[in-house]
Design a protein that fits this description.
This protein is an all-alpha fold and 52 residues long. 52% of the residues lie in helices and 0% in strands. The longest helix is centred in the C-terminal third of the chain and has 14 residues, at 35-48. It starts with a helix and ends with a helix. The model has no long low-confidence stretch (mean pLDDT 93).
């Protein structure tokens, strides 16, 4: 089970070009290694981004 708050934070960092706190580089989807979280973040981005 994924935490929706963590999903929202990660997705918003990816959308806005925020930093990955672990590496201090721009946060990208490939930084998410947990498959369940990756899918949840992808779904969040697709549903919350206009024009996709």
């Amino acid at each position: 089970m994924v935490n929706p708050i963590v999903v929202r934070i990660a997705a918003e960092r990816i959308i806005n070009g925020g930093l990955n706190p672990k590496t201090n580089t721009v946060y990208v989807l490939d930084d998410i290694t947990n498959e369940a979280y990756r899918i949840a973040v992808e779904d969040y981005i697709l549903t919350s981004t206009k024009g996709i």
